[in-house]
Amino acid sequence: MKITRKDIANYKLLKVLLEKDQKKLERYVANQPSAYSGKVYGSNPEFPYQPRGFTVTGCSDFEIAQLKDWEQKCREMEVKIQDDIRRLNELELAIDTMIANAKDVEDKAILEYTKDGLSQYEIADILCMERSTVSKRLSKYVSQ
């Protein structure tokens, strides 16, 4: 897998977005549409009249359609999350392989800091070098 600067920059963002999507899905599952239920009160039809209560449950056609739509949307979101997890794992493996294959210790540090989301200016300050040097060394490993 060919790694670009954009892949490294989006790596951390993808992880954050994935966590948010998982929380959304949990919230959707917790707020599942439900059928109505209620109590009906009456009495015996013969003497002695005694009060009776009945619990009635059920769904209208609209509620059934709403439940099916909810289930479909949850399934789609689960598939999207699984695709994002797979993509994140592939990207992380490719980035880590690239870092492991780097020969120079400073290059490894530059790649690690870039993976962690630091800017080239911040990396240059940490490693006491020019920003242009960071950019040149980074370009040895990643494409535009």
Give the mean pLDDT: 86
User: Biggest sheet: strands side by side, in what order?
Assistant: 1-2
User: Mind describing the biggest β-sheet?
Assistant: 2 strands, antiparallel
Approximate strand percentage: 5-15%
Number of helices: 5
Element-by-element helix/strand order: HEEHHHH
Protein described:
There is one protein chain. Helices cover 66% and strands 11% of the residues. It has helices at 5-30, 61-101, 105-115, 120-127, 131-139; strands at residues 36-43, 51-58. Helix 1 (5-30) packs antiparallel against helix 2. The protein starts with a helix and ends in a 5-residue tail after the last helix.
List keywords for this structure.
144 residues, mainly alpha
Q: What's the quick description here?
A:
By secondary structure, this protein is mainly alpha-helical. The chain has helices at 5-30, 61-101, 105-115, 120-127, 131-139; strands at 36-43, 51-58.
Topology:
Layout lengths: L4 H26 L5 E8 L7 E8 L2 H41 L3 H11 L4 H8 L3 H9 L5
Antiparallel strand pairs: 1-2
Helix pairs in contact: 1-2, 2-3, 4-5
